[in-house]
Amino acid sequence: MRVRRLGELEAEIMDRVWQWERPASVREIVDDINRVRKVAYTTVMTVADILHRKGWLSREKSGRAWMYEAVRSREEYTAALMQDALGDSQDRRATLLRFVERMSHEDVEALDEALRAARTDRPGDGRGR
């Protein structure tokens, strides 16, 4: 699945919904964004509707307001962006090597642990278990 990077306001909305881990109204989102910068209610309402149509947010009516909730996690979004970037490479091995060379020691250890877990979790591939 090809994933386009979220726009600035899309990312601000998703950041809040991901952080809160619960359904949120446009009013809650607007009020929180307005602590940092001014944004119109109708602008956030429009962008939340766009995110809903794109499949990033689900929504359910609560009284007169829509309550929005994330459909996919921040980690799924980030992983899809990484996969897209890797897919654009002509030499995946070289791209991965350059990526790992720039990682912190802690991130390399986390990647190594994730690779071990992925190998163990794959049934019937002859690796692990």
Automatic annotation (TrEMBL):
Query: Per the record, a Pfam family?
Result: Penicillinase_R
- From the Swiss-Prot or TrEMBL record, give the protein name: BlaI/MecI/CopY family transcriptional regulator
InterPro entries hit by this protein:
BlaI_family, WH-like_DNA-bd_sf, WH_DNA-bd_sf
| Native species | Streptomyces katrae
Instruction: Give yes or no: UniProt keyword Protein biosynthesis.
Output: no
Keyword annotations for this protein, in alphabetical order, are: DNA-binding, Transcription, Transcription regulation
Similarity section: Belongs to the BlaI transcriptional regulatory family.
TM stretches of this protein: none
Q: Which SUPFAM superfamilies match?
A: Winged helix' DNA-binding domain
